[in-house]
Structure formats: C-alpha cells, structure tokens
Design brief:
5 helices; 5-stranded mixed sheet
Length: about 180
C-alpha cells in the first residue's frame, strides 16, 4: 500500500516534498511508500460565499471521486475548511476509508498574525496528516491529549499533542 499526497489548490512545494519522510516514520509498518501524486483543482462548489470558507465534505468527496485502488490518499490544501456546524476544521477523513484531507491554512503561524515559521508549519501539518490518515486507517479520536489522535479544536491543542500515537492507539492500528 502507498500513501499518495495530492495537492488540492496551491500548497508550498517544500512542504509537499518534506512530508512523505515524516509520514513514513509513523506508517512504515503499514505502507510501502509515501509520495507526491497529482494536483487537483478546488471545485467552485466547495466554496461557501457566506462563510468565506470551503466545505470539507465537498473537497473530500471531490478527491475521493478521483481516487482508484486501495492506496491511501492525503489531500493537502491551503483552503480554509469548515464542516457542518463547526466553525473550522484542520482536516477530515473517511473513517475508515482511503481519503484524508488536511488544510494548512490555520496551521500556518501567519494566519494568527505571526511571522512565517516553516518548522512550526511542517510540525503542525505532520500532526494533522498523521491524525487524518489515522482516521483513514480506522482510528477514532483518543482521550489522551498527548496522542496525535486527540481531537484538536484549536491551534493550541494541535501544538500540545505529539506526533506519535499513544500505546492504546498504536495497538489498535497495528493489531
């Protein structure tokens, strides 16, 4: 099995190049490779004019409809995402399924008025990518706030958790 990284819209090239190695560190026992794949345009139907955000369900479905086979797909976007009643989401995934979606929009320190910080951006993106791919592999949210599978309702919660699965989630993932 392979993790294919798909750009949805404009995503920094360096981020897309650096992410596969970090993901392989977490999923090496489950996947053979992690690599860049195609670029997908953001469908106009995903944008909600009133919210000035993109609907994560529409984007996830858009990518899913272009996916074949049993490989996992990680869709990366810079679009600000929302899901139903939530003000925003960092990402979303089929649980279980083949497609995960992560937005770097609110993971970027610049969004909060801070100077650019690539190391912080790649660390946050790694956490959320592992989290959403964890869902694609069938993992639910974890109550352990240090586990990468804990739910993050704010950037502070993303920063607080680690890039690792807790022992309980690791056992679920690897059986």
């Amino acid at each position: 099995m392979i993790i294919k990284i798909v750009e949805v819209g404009d995503v920094p090239e360096k981020l897309v190049r650096d992410l596969p190695q970090r993901l392989m560190g977490s999923f090496a026992l489950l996947v053979d490779d992690c690599r860049m794949d195609e670029t997908v345009e953001i469908p106009p139907t995903a944008y909600d004019v009133l919210r000035e955000q993109h609907n994560a369900d529409v984007l996830l479905d858009h990518v899913r409809c272009r996916t074949t086979g049993n490989d996992k797909v990680l869709a990366l976007t810079n679009a600000d995402l929302f899901h139903s009643s939530l003000n925003f989401v960092f990402g979303q995934a089929q649980c279980p399924g083949n497609v995960a979606l992560v937005s770097i929009c609110r993971l970027d320190p610049v969004f909060y008025g801070y100077p650019p910080n690539y190391e912080l951006l790649i660390e946050r993106t790694t956490k959320e990518a592992i989290h959403e791919l964890g869902h694609a592999f069938g993992l639910e949210h974890c109550e352990n706030t240090g586990c990468v599978m804990s739910f993050s309702n704010s950037i502070h919660e993303v920063d607080k958790k680690s890039t690792f699965l807790c022992e309980k989630c690791r056992k679920k993932l690897y059986g």
